[in-house]
Design goal:
This protein has 203 residues and is mainly β. Helix content is 12%, strand content 41%. The chain is built from 3 helices and 12 strands, in the order βαβββββββαβαβββ. The chain has an 8-stranded mixed β-sheet with strand order 2-3-4-1-5-8-7-6. Strands 10-9-11-12 form a 4-stranded mixed β-sheet, with helices on one face. The longest helix is centred in the N-terminal third of the chain and has 12 residues.
């Protein structure tokens, strides 16, 4: 398997405004409009956090003419916005073997961007979001290079799950990012950032 790199973190919300309000209240910066994902009936807003990494708020798009499961579990969005998933990029995604069902490798596009991404057929997230969604950018610039730099920087992404050993063992030798830590316990995804309000934790 190719080496992995932490690509972005996704906050899931019932509405995009609700998710952006929640993020702005904590990080001091409001995510900017991103775009729509017609295939899955969602839309997003984004924050640039330096080259190679960004932050996403994603929610159901009420204007979408959509049928079928929404990705990121957004057929049943959380009552309160929360970090729903973390996304890692790699090359040769179609050949990657995972210890859990990460989903079908699905080609998508938005504007000049083209990418392949793993999406379970029922729209759920592997290990309820504790296992990363996998992405391979195939055309266009990486979003982090075209987003305005928010000045925010990720310090730590912590993942807790009863089966976290599956994730940890799979990542050994493939993700050498000291910002990512894993522990066995109840499901929880928490991220720590440095920004205008100092150090801030999101969960």
């Amino acid at each position: 398997m190719s080496s992995l790199a932490l690509d972005h973190i996704a906050v899931c919300a019932r509405t995009l405004d609700e998710g952006c309000d929640w993020v702005e209240a904590r990080l001091g910066i409001r995510p900017r409009p991103g775009g729509k994902h017609a295939r899955y009936g969602t839309h997003n807003c984004l924050l640039g956090m330096g080259d190679g990494f960004y932050f996403e708020v994603i929610a159901p798009d009420p204007d979408a003419d959509h049928s079928g499961p929404r990705w990121f579990g957004l057929d049943h969005p959380p009552e309160v916005p929360r970090i729903g998933n973390w996304i890692c990029r790699c090359a040769g995604l179609a050949e990657v073997q995972t210890p859990v069902d990460a989903g079908v490798v699905t080609p998508l596009e938005r504007g000049a961007l083209r990418w392949n991404i793993t999406v379970p057929e029922d729209g759920s997230m592997p290990l309820d979001g504790a296992f990363p969604t996998l992405i391979e950018w195939t055309a266009g610039q990486h979003p982090s290079t075209v987003l305005a730099d928010s000045g925010l920087r990720l310090q730590n992404l912590h993942i807790s799950h009863p089966q976290v050993a599956l994730v940890r063992d799979w990542l050994i030798g493939h993700l050498g990012d000291p910002r990512v830590t894993l522990t066995e316990g109840p499901l929880a995804l928490t991220a720590s950032f440095i920004g205008p309000h100092g150090t801030v934790n999101l969960a």
